[in-house]
């Protein structure tokens, strides 16, 4: 039997995260204070984040050691398996070799605990007792709830009200870990009360939930705030995925020709891709990189590369990134983790430089790929990960047309066992179509903050 599973022994969990910022072909444009348009200084953000994470946010060190207590928690599920998808290859009748790194083996079923655990650790080291965050569908909230429990921190999650009501199981998971979960908008914050005063039936949004979580953290000495994607330190923590995958591809005796990941804020894609990008930027490899987004929220393929707010309300520093405009409200596709108007600044820079390719996939095509994947490989992909599956399949089919062997590696960022409602709709043929509305993007882009060419050039 051909080998299909490449397992690293536990003691080979990488001891360092890899910081691609050290090797970027151009300096990363700094985050700007929205009032002064000056680069943000770390101490401005100290009410929200611990010093260790702010230092990681700005560091240019190539390697950042993973603290031993973080590796000890990682060991509950890391190293994660790398599989070769022989059955999927046969079903596609392709000469391509398809590999996937499976992050769904974590306690909460996605890659998100890789950073949640690190963030909880650094907060506890600096005496923080409590973390707040927002969550939409609940992947990030459950990862942080788990991580806080590991380090004895209290956790409060502001969960967008529609999800709170329609998707109770992730909420129950967070509560099982001991987190306090409230529907947002809530009466617990000024921001929430303001929205409720205008509309007591407000379904909530990620933007409102962020405002509540940030206000809560800023107003209490013992509390800080945690973010699940986009920022440099989050992407840094996720590189444990790609560092493992590099060693596992060595075990398999192959090098990827193309590396693929889905992108919401960019963290699971970066986590897998950046360690392989190190080889490409150093001229040791010619690997292609493909970031996959939904056609319903196409920041990389239809957005503009400019400074914008990270949140919907306009509270955060300005980040230079591909954006649909911070007031863009993406249609309600099932891949909730991909419904973000912006993109990690590093991933954006790599796309702008032509080093990373971007592709948009329709929801129905993502599910078609995911169902074929489930029927051949057994695992039901998260709706987000389904977007990466669909592009991996398309690359394999192109290899067949071209009669070429091609080594394809993609990130299966999570499983979809909390998302069976979405599969039910797909199988019943009742999935809503996800047409993209250019007018909505135009209206939203008209509200971009004005940043002069001078500060853009910093
Ligand atoms: C949150 C999530 C994503 C999207 O976030 P990124 O930061 O772009 O990785 C993708 N897949 C899964 C399973 C998620 O939970």
Describe the protein's architecture and organization.
The protein is an alpha/beta fold and 458 residues long. 41% of the residues lie in helices and 16% in strands. The protein has 19 helices and 15 strands. The strands form four sheets. It has a seven-stranded mixed sheet with strand order 1-4-5-15-10-11-14, with helices on both faces. It has a four-stranded parallel sheet with strand order 8-7-6-9, sandwiched between helices. Strands 2-3 form a two-stranded antiparallel ribbon. Helix 12 (267-281) links the parallel strand 10 (258-262) and strand 11 (288-294). Helix 1 crosses helix 10 (232-238), helix 2 runs antiparallel to helix 4 and helix 10 packs across helix 12 (267-281). It is globular. The model has no long low-confidence stretch (mean pLDDT 94). The structure holds pyridoxal-5'-phosphate.
Keywords, please?
single chain; 458 residues; alpha/beta; Rossmann fold; 7-stranded mixed beta sheet; 4-stranded parallel beta sheet; 19 helices; globular; binds pyridoxal-5'-phosphate
Could you tell me the CATH topology label of the domain at 4-12 and 65-109 and 233-456. Rossmann fold
Model regions low in confidence, pLDDT < 50 over at least 5 residues: none
β-strand amount: 15-25%
How many angstroms does the end-to-end distance come to? 56 Å
**Average predicted local confidence, pLDDT:** 94
Strand line-up of the largest beta sheet: 1-4-5-15-10-11-14
Which ions and ligands are bound to the chains? pyridoxal-5'-phosphate
The helix tally amounts to: 19
- What class would the helix/strand composition place it in? alpha/beta
Helix percent reads: 40-55%
